[in-house]
Amino acid sequence: MVKYIIKRILYSILILFAVSIILYILVRCLPMDYVENKFLSQMTQGTINKEELYRIKTLYGLEDSSFVGILRGYWKWLIAALSGDLGTSFLYNQPVTTVISEHMWISFGIAIAAYVLEFVIAIPLGIKAATKQYGAIDYTTTVFAMIGISFPSFFIAILLIKVFSYDLGWFPSQGIVDPYLTGAAKFGNELWHIVLPMIAITIISVGGLMRHTRTNTLEVLNQDYIRTARAKGLSERTVIYKHVFRNTMVPLVTMIAGIIPSLFGGMMILEQVFALPGIGQIAYNALKQGDIPFIMGYNMFIAILTVLGTLLSDIMYMVVDPRIKISK
After folding, report:
1. Do 229 and 305 belong together in one domain?
2. pLDDT at residue 45 in the model
3. Tens digits of per-residue pLDDT, 307-327?
4. Are residues 18 and 160 in the same domain?
């Protein structure tokens, strides 16, 4: 186990190194230029000439857009990143680590609550739909799953705002907290503000997991050992929740690799609709402005979480099914 984890960590470091190179080159090739966007009005009015613009780009490290210049810029970024310095955000004028740490917890709180609801709802319904195949429950869950899969996230969000904010007036439509509140009232108000975003994410996500669980359960139900368990006289509840459920979880643990980065990754579209100051909206604004330090720091943060999620997923395979062996 230890040798396997060490080998996977070494592979992960190599992958992260390759990802950082590709990402930096792609970011430097984006059509957005932070300096030109910032001083566009001055350039249009003629108050800034090309020499002054070049001097400003030099301050930001953007003066050389050739391939050699991009590699030189990457080397400077890599040396600083290895020392724990991800640079200062052009747009927010703060260290990248500070911006990420201040805004990722809103996205994390909403996402973790939504994922708990997703698993609590999707897995039992998926198993129930498989055991009642072609029944009323199966068709109902299938329709519900297709609605969540097919409808875009912004449509679900706007529909929730229309019904529960404007028509019923139960929940606030945008923002994270009312400005005049403090203490426990402020915390409770923040929780009330994230109810609709949490419901929107759950509706969007639950369909895919439900269908995935249903498909896996149907495959397990057709296995010989399930027929043997039933032939021994075990109750249907014991067969389903002791034998079927455990083996159904084996393919589902692969989802851990994607869940961990998404918890901190934010939801760009939904955060725009609900006007939430989460990391998704912050990253979107940085991308529009060509904020290279923040884009690099944020995406490498997500890449590290993805690698950790993949490693955790592999380890969870053995927890769920001890028959799985690790090849060293």
Report:
1. yes
2. 62
3. 888 877 777 766 666 555 555
4. no
Distance between CA atoms of 123 and 252, rounded to whole angstroms? 10
Give the Cα-Cα-Cα angle 237, 238, 241 (nearest 5 degrees).
Answer: 80
0.70 exceeded by pTM: yes
Virtual torsion, Cα 244, 245, 248, 252, nearest 10 deg: 180
CA-to-CA distance for 33 and 147, rounded, in angstroms?
39
Instruction: Write the pLDDT tens digit of every residue in 72-127.
Output: 888 888 888 888 888 888 888 888 889 888 888 888 888 888 888 888 888 888 88
Range of the domain at 58: 2-82
Q: In whole angstroms, what is the distance from residue 241 CA to residue 191 CA?
A: 34
Average pLDDT, the chain: 79
24, 284, 287, 304, 308 from 294: Cα distances, Å: 11, 10, 8, 15, 21
267's tokens: 């939801």
| Alpha-carbon span 152 to 150, nearest angstrom | 6
Cα separations in angstroms, 126 against 104, 146, 168, 230: 31, 13, 31, 21
Task: Look at the chain and report how many structural domains it folds into.
Answer: 2
Q: How far apart are CA 14 and CA 21, in angstroms?
A: 11
Say how far apart CA 193 and CA 179 lie, in whole Å.
12
Percent with pLDDT over 70 in the chain: 85
Q: Which residue has the tokens 């975003």?
A: 197
Q: What is the CATH number of the domain that holds 261?
A: 1.10.3720.10
Give per-residue pLDDT as tens, 38-66.
766 666 666 666 677 677 777 667 777 77
The answer to whether the beta carbons of residues 252 and 280 sit under 8 Å apart is: no
Same domain, 185 and 284: yes
